[in-house]
Amino acid sequence: MPLPRLGTRSRRLRTAPAVFLVVAVALALAALCTGGSRPEKTAARRVVVEVSKSHCGRGWTRPEPGVQTFDLHNTSDGAAEVYLEDPATHAVYGEVEGVGPGTTRQLTVRVGKGAYAFLCVPDDADAVTGPTVHVTGGRRGPGAVPVTEHDLIPPALAYQKWVGGGLAAAVRLSAELKDAIDRGDLAAARAAWLPAHLQYERLGAAYDAFGDADGKINGTDAGLPRGVHDKDFTGFHRIEYGLWHGEPASGLRAPAAALVTALTGLRDSWAQSRMDPAQLGLRAHEILENTVQFELTGRTDYGSGSNLATARANLDGTREVLSRLRPLLTTRYADLPQLNRELTRAGQMLDGFRHGGHWTALGELTRAQRERTDSVLDGLVERLASVATLCDPRRTV
After folding, report:
1. Reduced DSSP (H G I as helix, E B as strand, rest coil) percent helix, strand, coil of the chain, to 5
2. pTM given for the model
3. Which of 19, 161, 284, 310 is deepest in the core (most CB within 10 A)?
4. Are 80 and 182 part of one and the same domain?
């Protein structure tokens, strides 16, 4: 379980605002208060801790083991982030972002045997470490050594290279889809549509990862004045609608050609683009969050009934991100083995909805199947929120 955390950084989202950090905080605080088989003493006294360049961490003079609430009061004239860390290992046990000047924010952590110090990180200034405080008994809450952007550069480069190869495959498969439509063979086109679409979905196009290109390649009719008949409805879902609603090949040739053009352009530009390493941990969470928001609700079904197939492809994409982050997570995320087991369980569950080349449609699920599917993927989204939190780079100097 990751460290307790308050506050979020601004994200550019394609859909609803991200709430995963709130979830991570709730889970972490629940672990603080209920973890273990034996209740521990809870510190009843509230402690006011100063946040400033000159007196960072001043005020915590009577440390006691147990759940402790700190009132972090910023006496400086600028905003700051505050971490509670082990001064020797720099493992972080709690953090609060964006403590404004003259304001007070609360941080609740379980403190136990060991050394602690507050680290104040003002905006546009060097970090300041406060005095070391020693707790003589009890059990510590969860903590993790911060990840830096430098740590994330190698996995981000590896992931970006993998995405580039995946885009090349998506171009090839979409060209096969276009060729079938150009021949007027709509049965072959329907057979070619799903492999092409799933290949693209595996690449993790969540929350503007591919910028405006994603709207042309995989957009929906949401917000378009004429809905599915709007000229700006393009890409895989435009072709899906036509293939499963009796549209003739003549009406699909232009959308198919535009899809290949958009994918080719994305493939060619991807080689020159530079993915922000700080977004990699967030990507692992967002892919399946999008799955829950769009695939499990059926909002992206335009006739093929392939939402569960897409969910399986998204799960593959999530695994690809995690495989690059694994060296960083192994020493920071104690629940990584459980996450791996849940990913395997989710894959087996989704594979159970595939029968040869046919996938069960959402509407064909029994109530029990639907509830189990929602529960398993919702649980994964919550666990992956912890990965996003742990892999969010922190400024410590």
Report:
1. 50, 15, 40
2. 0.80
3. 284
4. no
